[in-house]
């Protein structure tokens, strides 16, 4: 029987008031249920927010270096359990063990960094133009903060949100993604063990539409920190704006790698493979467009396709696996539908483009590393975030054209350039991307 997990509210592990549950499924083997989690509703969120609200005054008055002591303890516990938590994360979301170990390491580093900030919450003093006046700014906590996370960095992203919020004296309600709830549970358990006072950290599992939305709409939540898709981010941003709630949004990407005629091709191929197929292409910063100078197009493409064909697909827990499954069935189907769209749009499929069902992989959600050629910015596969192991090669004739193509997207998360020309490299860093911002704004306005 799979283990049944609970919410963490006011320092207690409790079942949801709804009585409903959902299964956390291993994407490498859909018959393997990692755990059964509460499908919480607004009543559970309300209890968690009330607990966080009651705990706030005492926590904000706890000296920041004393808050840091608890975070240092949590850092230590995370370090001790790194391997064990990485295995849980791989089991519930699929990426290979080396990557989930890196994920936990990011949690450890953030805890260490933020605990240090406990002695550095400096403010400014400013000379006044008036006599006998002293001007200063001090950092004050905001209150109860709602944290909504995606599944693809199941330890790192909650850590990036929780530790800074706590060190500054805020109390939190965390709503993890329902595709990766067990990793967040481990993190919260560690905070409990480290001695976090009751009510300071609360964890409520459930769906985005019900549980997440209840958190966003709760009047006692003063700030929402959201990481996830642009589509959901727009809804959350709108609601927060309407209620004058502070809001931070980290959203999707359609990231590009430029490969110039003077690039070190082997290095560029290494970068493209890791960028496009690492985490099975399911990263906000995944490379999904390869903008390649025609002078090196043949060499780069041949080497890339040859290496992509050698990627070993399988369960992320196996040391022989290079690339794990995609997160769930609907994402698997979405990836394939984009491959069909790409073919119809006239992109040329060089490798992949189908479900991978060899051996045990038929039990899970696996897709072949897929490379398209002859990409153009007007194609949907050059514009939409696919969030899977699919990359599009877009040939160009010059550096200026490469930059133009790179910027012809609504997204602006990450990019890279492979060149030995330092001048070009710096131009790529400082290039004016205001056109891209304008395009994003015009396209968003058209949607409304
Ligand atoms: P998602 O937007 O579907 O869900 C993210 C979280 O929001 C989940 O916890 C979900 O339950 C919740 N949610 C969904 N609908 C909601 C609603 N209406 N109200 C409140 N909460 C709601 O994203 P996902 O599939 O979990 O993650 C993949 C996406 O996240 C990709 O677009 C990826 O690029 C993005 N991402 C961005 C970053 C970054 O730092 N920029 C990092 C990782 C992932």
Strand order of the largest sheet: 14-15-16-13-12-17
Largest sheet, in brief, is: 6 strands, mixed
Low-pLDDT windows of residues:
none
Question: What is the name of the CATH superfamily of the largest domain?
Answer: Aldehyde Dehydrogenase, Chain A, domain 1
Number of helices: 14
The kinds of small molecule bound in this structure are: nicotinamide-adenine-dinucleotide
Global Rg: 23 Å
CATH topology of the largest domain: Aldehyde Dehydrogenase, Chain A, domain 1
Shape: globular
* Fraction of helical residues: 40-55%
| DSSP strand tally | 17
Determine the N-to-C terminus distance. 48 Å
Structural class: alpha/beta
In terms of DSSP E residues, the strand content is 15-25%
List the helices and strands and how they pair.
Blueprint (H helix, E strand, L loop, with lengths): L6 E3 L2 E3 L6 E5 L7 E6 L3 H20 L2 H17 L1 H12 L3 H21 L7 E2 L8 E2 L7 E5 L7 H12 L3 E5 L5 H13 L7 E3 L4 H10 L5 E5 L2 H13 L3 E5 L4 E5 L5 H13 L9 E7 L3 H13 L19 H17 L2 E4 L18 E4 L16 E7 L2 H9 L7 E4 L3 H9 L3 H14 L1
Parallel strand pairs: 7-8, 7-10, 8-9, 10-11, 12-13, 12-17, 13-16, 15-16
Antiparallel strand pairs: 1-2, 3-4, 5-6, 14-15
Helix pairs in contact: 1-7, 2-4, 2-6, 3-4, 3-6, 4-5, 9-10
Nicotinamide-adenine-dinucleotide (NAD) binds next to helix 7 and helix 8.
